[in-house]
Amino acid sequence: xxxxxxxxxxxxxxxxxxxxxxxxxxxxxxxxxxxxxxxxxxxxxxxxxxxxxxxxxxxxxxxxxxxxxxxxxxxxxxxxxxxxxxxxxxxxxxxxxxxxxxxxxxxxxxxxxxxxxxxxxxxxxxxxxxxxxxxxxxxxxxxxxxxxxxxxxxxxxxxxxxxxxxxxxxxxxxxxxxxxxxxxxxxxxxxxxxxxxxxxxxxxxxxxxxxxxxxxxxxxxxxxxxxxxxxxxxxxxxxxxxxxxxxxxxxxxxxxxxxxxxxxxxxxxxxxxxxxxxxxxxxxxxxxxxxxxxxxxxxxxxxxxxxxxxxxxxxxxxxxxxxxxxxxxxxxxxxxxxxxxxxxxxxxxxxxxxxxxxxxxxxxxxxxxxxxxxxxxxxxxxxxxxxxxxxxxxxxxxxxxxxxxxxxxxxxxxxxxxxxxxxxxxxxxxxxxxxxxxxxxxxxxxxxxxxxxxxxxxxxxxxxxxxxxxxxxxxxxxxxxxxxxxxxxxxxxxxxxxxxxx
Length: 502
Fold this sequence. Notes:
By secondary structure, this protein is an alpha+beta fold. The chain has helices spanning 7-77, 84-97, 130-138, 179-189, 239-317, 321-347, 360-377, 397-413, 445-449, 466-476; strands at 103-107, 113-116, 142-143, 147-148, 155-165, 168-178, 194-198, 204-208, 217-223, 230-236, 356-359, 380-385, 392-395, 419-428, 431-438, 480-486, 490-498. It has three domains: 1-237, 2-Layer Sandwich (Beta-Lactamase); 264-345, Helix Hairpins; 350-498, Heat Shock Protein 90, CATH 3.30.565.10. The strands form four sheets. Strands 1, 2, 3, 4, 5 and 6 form a six-stranded antiparallel sheet that branches. Helix 1 (7-77) packs antiparallel against helix 5, helix 6 runs parallel beside helix 10 and helix 8 (397-413) runs antiparallel to helix 10. The relative contact order is 0.07.
């Protein structure tokens, strides 16, 4: 059973899915939804503040206008302070014309009501009212708290202003305002908000508008300057619904994103798995080839040696031209088999070679005449550049020669109509770099991907083991070989070998 299909792997896959998708999605969605709720509640709070200020200003304007009207009336009544009939008539007419007044009264400094626009059955005295005592003490207009009127029996507030003559209060003009009338006026101005007006004791004086108490509410309170009242505006907040809606919305979005990321991660892991399996397959293939080469190479070479000797003897006995042609072909094919067997041996199990430290420049100079000869034969211009720095590498000299000669041969064969071959050596950091560049026919991308595969070749008489052997040799010395190629422009092969540290 594959590791990727075991119950343990499936459990780890579920854990990974939860860590990559579910937990981040829930955390981010909750955070963003909570932030959305806070922003919404702030907006509702600002709106509640606007409503509270609006209604408080209306109450203040209402009281201010009422006080102004009452003080003007008090000034006008000064000329009639001894004519109670005239004063009563003026007060009755004023109440009929101004709906804000539910009752107008004239009281003596001792608190007895002399005139009332509302009918009274008994003598009424208001001297014990705190607002009345404040008027006499300060000789300024005073506003009472909410109370039950002694004349009407209604829930009212009273505004009192003194009648001053010669620096002395000769009477007090009072006006009662029905709170239910104020409430009715406020109700007409109320929209979605609930407005409550409370006094310092917390008693609710006015309550207009409806707010569902089951829903979350946002409050804002505003104090009225002219009376000790507080106006509180309340709004139903949709934050609960907003949280659920936003949370689900973000959860869908981020669940989609995280699932895509999870699938990409899975795809990446699968690609790595495929690449790893491919590498293991290649290693297994090379191992099989190596085992095959190790077990059969000597068995192949023994009969080849016999064949080669017999061909030589026969060639000496049959000297005619036709026979010699056949013997030559047989000899070439035997030599070709020997080359293939040698390459197979390189692919086989590592052999205990005696490594030595050699200068890469010196190795190149030893094979330069061979490359020059081949280049001249192929009508190719050869250019070899050596670095002036020492390039000590730990290797088997013949192996490095074999690699460079193989690459040079490939480049020459890629330029059948002539061209230019450039070989350079250089030192980069702690490595030796050998570069072989030609301007031949180049390779397609598909061909480049298979260049190091065993038995892959584009030549009619090629074994397909040349580059495979080169790669095996270079990797044996902990080096790297890399090919870059462009069709119809040429190919560059770069060999990197670690420098030997003595």
